[in-house]
Amino acid sequence: MSIEYINLTLNKHMKHLITVGNIFKKYCGQDPIQKKKNTKAISALAYTLILMLFFSLNVAAQTSILDRAVNIQLKNVRLSDALSAIGDKAGVNITYSSTKLNVDKIVTVNSANKSLKTLLNELLGKSLKRLDVKDNVITIETKEVPSATTENIRQMEDLDEVVVVSSRTPKHISDIPGTVWVVDSAKLQAQIRSGVPLKEALGILIPSLDIGNQGRSNYGQNLRGRNILVMLDGVSLNSSRATNRQFDAIDPFNIEKIEVLSGASAIYGGDATGGIINIVTKKAKAQKLSLETEVGGRSGLRNSGDHDLRFAQSISAGNEVVKGRLGFAYQQNAGAFDGKNRQIVIDTKQSDFQYNRTIDLFGNVDIKPGKNQTLNFDAQYYESKYNSDKGLFLGQNLAGGLPANANNGQAPDPSLLDIRDGFSSDVVPRSKRFFVNGQYRITDILGGQNFQFQGYWRTEKLDFSPSFPEGIVRTRELTVSPGNVLPLPLAASRQNTNLWGFRMVLSKQFDQVNLTYGADFDRESFIGKQAFFDAPTTYSTGGLTNRIANTLGRFPDNRIVGFSGFAQASWAVTDQLAIAGGIRRQHMSVSVDDFVRFQQQVSVNYGVGTSADAIPGGKNSYNVTLFNGSVIYKLNDQQQVWANFAQGFSVPDPAKTYGIGSYQREGDHWKLLNSINVKDSPLSGVKTNQFELGWRRPAKTGFNAQAAVYYSLSDKALLTNFSTFTISLSDQHVRNYGLEAEVSYRQAPEGFDVGASAHVIVAEIKTPADGWKRNSIITNNPSKAVAYAGWKADDFSVRVQGVHTFNLKDYQALELKGFTTIDLLGSLKLPLGVLSAGVQNVFNKQYLTFWGQRAVIFYGAPSELYQYNGRGRTYMLSYSITY
Q1: Strands 290-299, 874-882: parallel, antiparallel or unpaired by DSSP?
Q2: Measuring CA to CA, which residue among 801, 808, 790 is closest to residue 222?
Q3: How far apart are CA 90 and CA 69, in angstroms?
Q4: pLDDT (average), residues 157-181
């Protein structure tokens, strides 16, 4: 409050008090009765004027505080942090009820001498009811917004939805010069609760993401035909040993939304040559106690052995300082049957989800330790494991699946294959993870910068099915002497990865320029073993009983350390035009242990020789520098066009690159003749350059659309050897180009919801003889199209959706056959909770999954052992309630 204002107010009211005094003197001389009446009246008038004085002083104080000028710039911060920073600048304490105010909403503040009142009105908009000022405290009171206005606000928030997948700090989609998709909780849960598995749901909802396999692995499920970097709350789920189980990492019950950036990117490091998928987990949203329960069942209703059951429960609570959520999900699957009501053969290579039990325990805590500060902690235990006494019977002495070259030239008899009771194995398919993630954020430090620190740790143990080991030839590795050839045993791969690291990010808003910069560090270690089972026991039980006889090294143990620095800047040239650019410098260090080739280990273990030379290990370091640049123009409040150039890079798998050599047996010793080792064949990152043009018109209701054309080029190719299942780096160029698009129309508040999406892609490799040819179907998928139509009201919804994948033939004349499936989804809001139902593959289509088609190419005869059909018509019923 200004001194001048107080003086004016006092002078004004002192004049009134002096007047009252004169009146009092004038009427004091009257007769006693009249004097008494006048004295009471004059006293009341005096009291009234005194109260008016104090009230005016109080109003003056409030007005003075709210009139204070504030200079502050904040870019993409939480509303709670913005209010704290504004209060600090103005020298006041701003309080509010976080249950009535969306304090986690991301906002941008740009105030140059705006009054505190104006700034808060702009920031809070129509939700602001009143600003109460007492002493030095401002209390924000909110009001109920009419339903029509709520829909308008919701639509504007959708237009300006905030994601972190495109940069290291929160950013409005309308400001991103790239193709961004957001699968919110409503979209995702509508699929999941109606029976669509996670990988398939994402393939339906994300235009440029391939339709996922129905097994445990997401091998070949690409984004724009290239590698995906999958993250969980900003932490990579990828590993150098590409096991492709990133989506076997969390139950959808614990997912809040999924953010997708299509196209090459190095914002978060390597492996994002096709784009980034960031899985954002659920957090506590309110201070009051809240619980969520979900139960469901899935079955084809044509066989007693195909029912899947699930249960999930969460609890969340907190106060203005601490909030937390704990979620638990459990699912037990039975068998799966195809369109002809035949049980799908159990996948003994990459494994599937038949008879699988999943447990996901995920907890998080959000803490506000002080002004402008937040602390977030996530912790998870996840286990997805084969859990049944049913197993794949391979026939007596494994005659139903034993390759001819391991059975004296006799071809396997697939008619012997059967799924039976009595399965017991020391190793079964499993994905087991522990995950810890912590983030600390503070705003307005070091000259108005925002700072974020993230530290994380992830350990995972991945086991595979008992199967015939790849790369082992019985007549070579298991021939002890002429006429003494040992039986080919079953074996199971066991792969353990540990990863830890940290990230630091600083961002600063300089008028129209935003700068984000920081550093990353991570260290990954890998151990790959192969458990070999006792052959007599395995053969006598047809592969149903497997006891570990010994364990050998499958891949060379290795460690990868990465350190990088990055900087990203954007300049708002005008309100409509912005340009951006950035650089990332990545240093990678690879250490590989000495390793005896897998085949020679097997030979020595079974008495074919007594010793073998080791392929030397060593250490290799390399640097990768990557750039990006973009421009975006806002045609109006709803539409944007953009163009960008971005580089991404992938790291060859050291486990499958090294540990390879040629040996010659000299007596009982295997002598190393030559090898692929770290010293002679150092690794280097494979760069991908991408160019993109795009346009979008996002809308919550009405017409919504986004489309982009792209061209990406790499100067090297990763090739797979099907005999040894190793990889090599070739100087052949690889390019992908195509179109991804989605268009939809939705009536509101209820009505039709229709839409379609497509990804048209051409993937090519430059061959030495014939130039550009269609790239291999081993790693590339065909184009796809999705269409849906539905009706949505307050109390129910229904949707029919169709997916069509096209045929694809590569330069080696190998072909993938496409397929079409139709799903029906629906939900009904009950007085308590929501009932969801769905039918997947409505017309009971019989088809071979892409993985089933590839597995036959990989593993050969008998094809019946590796032809994994798609699931036939399947029904789902689930119930969920939040209370």
Answers
A1: antiparallel
A2: 808
A3: 8
A4: 78
Which residue do the tokens 């692929």 mark?
A: 676
| Residue in 327, 308, 434 with CA at minimum distance from that of residue 379 | 434
CATH of 69-145, one of 3.55.50.30, 3.30.40.10, 3.20.20.370, 3.40.228.10: 3.55.50.30
Q: Where are the beta strands (DSSP E) in 574-639?
A: 577-592, 611-612, 618-634
Which residues does 283 contact at the CB level (< 8 Å), separation at least 6?
256, 316, 323, 325, 364, 366
- Mean pLDDT lowest among 142-151, 295-304, 739-748: 142-151
Q: What is the pLDDT of residues 397-414, one digit of tens each?
A: 999 999 888 888 889 999
Query: 731 pLDDT band (50/70/90 cuts)?
Result: confident
CB atoms within 10 A of CB 331: 20
Confidence of residue 146 (pLDDT cuts 50, 70, 90): very low
Least confident of 122-126, 429-433, 726-730, 823-827: 726-730
Query: Concatenated DSSP letters for 310-337?
Result: EEEEEEEEE-SSEEEEEEEEEEE----B
Which residue shows structure tokens 């009446």?
Answer: 37
Cα–Cα distance between 340 and 819 in angstroms, integer? 16
Check if the beta carbon of residue 551 is closer than 8 Å to that of residue 427.
Answer: no
Separation of alpha carbons 808 and 225, rounded Å: 13
Report residue 769 as tokens.
């003889």
**Is the CB of residue 830 less than 8 Å from the CB of residue 804?**
no
Sequence-distant (≥ 6) Cβ neighbours of residue 721 within 8 angstroms: 727, 728
Please say whether the beta carbons of 452 and 169 come within 8 A: yes
Collect all residues with Cβ–Cβ distance below 8 Å to 287 and sequence separation of at least 6. 98, 99, 317, 318, 319, 320, 323
Instruction: Tell the burial category of 848 from Cβ atoms under 10 Å away from its Cβ (0-12, 13-18, 19+).
Output: middle
CA 872 centroid distance within chain: 28
Burial 302-319 (b: 16+ CB within 10 A, else e): ebeebebebebebbbbbe
Domain-by-domain residue ranges, the chain? 3-66, 69-145, 278-388+423-470+490-533+547-882
Residues 278-388+423-470+490-533+547-882, CATH architecture = Beta Barrel (2.40)
Do the domains 278-388+423-470+490-533+547-882 and 69-145 match in fold? no
